[in-house]
Specification:
Length: 490
């Protein structure tokens, strides 16, 4: 273990020094505050809803630039301020869900707000799983129950069983469904891990109750924790449907889906390509990152190697281990890379594993060319496995769709979205506010504006004024086009 700053005994610290450390961890309030700001200021016009992307873009840029945090934690730092922050984050999660349900009890499904829900509130729900993860690792039963309840609200309570009793015991082995294999893409990993983790959790619970192959209607199943999570999670979801309507129900399901996608993206890159070489988990079996924002904004999740070595260690006490492979950017940037540039992520990760002699590489110092060649071989093998796993009709459908020329595909998608959203809004509003033709024209204006702004932003960001400035210009363009659209169509 290496430390850029020596450990400090907390007895030598003054209260203001402890406060300075705690204040840095208040960065974890970013996603909850952004979500509440979005929910408390809506409903929004489509061009105003888009403005809520800018703070998230700022965090993305921060997380992907050189702001390292390698200081080791203070020994015996008082726990209560950091525990209080976890409880605050927990309370904010439930408040945000309540506000989400209230918001969409008066807002329709076919709105820009639902799209921004995907980007803002869904991201916060994914962040809340980190808080739940911290709680389920605590020793106090009531804290574990609180973490499980948070997982119920994203319809993923079986994570409690599979993560604690499955993943931590089997990480870095072929038996762990949450360990992504060398060369495995995120889409293939997601299709594999989602059912496999649930099946693993179910078997672990059935084994705990006395019979791994027991039937669903066995009386012992009444004590099955995975079954409890399903009943509570979906019970809450259907209570939202019954009490607040289909729009609130759809929004609730969407935030849960985004949270699950984000969780599994994190699972994907936290162990991608690593294979355990000894019985006990070591510091080289997990990926770390040195990002300042990931450490403070995501409650210590960046120091994943120490977490797997000492699962009950609280987030503020997690240490940096130079032996662990390191992601090139923080978790926000890594999630974006996994979703949008998965091949680039795998190439960067393969070179890092080759340099350190981890994963499929037996010795350190493997050249980048050799690492990429090995990755290419693994990708071909993983693609064959994934194709065999997927249903034949999906393969045929995918081939047929790819055979359609790109312009025709874009036109077809545009037409489906245009007609679908117009019909949806007309149905939700009863058609009294605006005729179908005018509504179609307004939506064509909106989608056309986005079609203009998106390539402009990409060009400016890549060739001219930088990421943040290019987003500012793009959002200013959207604001101007939105005001013009209102003047024309209303």
């Amino acid at each position: 273990m290496s430390a850029s700053v020596p450990s400090v005994d907390a007895q030598t610290l003054q209260p203001d020094q402890v406060a300075k450390i705690w204040v840095r961890h208040l960065t974890s309030l970013f996603f909850p505050v952004l979500s509440l700001s979005f929910l408390w200021t809506g409903p929004h016009a489509w061009y105003l809803a888009a403005l809520f992307m800018l703070p998230a873009v700022g965090i993305f840029v921060w997380d992907t630039t050189a702001h390292d945090e390698r200081r080791q934690p203070v020994v015996a730092l008082p726990a209560w301020p950091f525990d209080a922050l976890v409880y605050l984050l927990t309370g904010l999660h439930f408040l945000i869900l309540f506000e989400l349900i209230r918001f969409f009890s008066v807002q329709g499904v076919f709105s820009a707000d639902l799209v921004m829900l995907f980007l803002v509130v869904g991201a916060n729900s994914g962040f809340s799983i980190i808080t739940a993860h911290e709680l389920i690792h605590r020793r106090k039963p009531w804290e574990q129950w609180l973490g499980r309840l948070m997982l119920c609200t994203v319809l993923y309570e079986h994570f409690y069983t599979e993560h604690l009793r499955g993943h931590h015991a089997r990480v870095g082995t072929p038996e762990d469904p949450a360990t992504a294999r060398f060369g495995e893409s995120y889409s293939a990993f997601f299709r594999r891990t989602l059912p496999a983790q649930f099946q693993s959790a179910w078997k672990l619970e059935a084994k705990r109750l006395g019979d791994e192959s027991m039937r669903l209607f066995d009386r012992r199943m009444l004590k099955n924790r995975v079954l409890h999570g399903l009943v509570i999670g979906w019970g809450i979801a259907f209570a939202v449907l019954a009490g607040f309507g289909y729009a609130a129900f759809a929004a609730y399901l969407l935030q849960a889906w985004v949270a699950i996608r984000l969780l599994e993206a994190v699972n994907y890159f936290e162990h991608w390509g690593l294979m355990r070489r000894q019985a006990q988990v070591s510091f080289v079996d997990s990926w770390d990152t040195y990002s300042w924002f990931t450490y403070y904004g995501l409650t210590g999740l960046s120091r994943h190697a120490d977490h797997h070595a000492f699962p009950v260690r609280p987030y503020q006490q997690l240490r940096v281990f130079e032996e662990a492979p390191a992601l090139s950017v923080g978790y926000i940037g890594s999630v974006d890379a996994v979703f949008a540039k998965n091949d680039d992520f795998m190439k960067t990760a393969a070179i890092e594993l080759g340099r350190r002699g981890l994963g499929p590489f037996e010795e350190p110092g493997v050249s980048g060319e050799e690492a990429l060649a090995r990755l290419g071989e693994a990708r071909q093998q993983e693609d064959r496995i994934d194709l065999d796993r997927r249903a034949s009709w999906k393969k045929r459908l995918s081939r047929s769709w790819k055979a359609v020329p790109m312009p025709a595909r874009l036109a077809l998608v545009f037409a489906i979205i245009l007609v679908g959203t117009t019909a949806g809004v007309q149905w939700e509003t009863g058609g009294g506010e605006m005729g179908f033709g005018s509504r179609t024209g307004l939506h064509a204006w909106i989608f056309g504006s986005l079609a203009i702004v998106i390539p402009v932003r990409r060009y400016l960001g890549a060739h001219a004024i930088g990421e943040i400035s290019s987003w500012g210009v793009a959002l200013a363009m959207i604001l101007a086009l939105g005001v013009c659209g209102d003047a024309i169509f209303y």
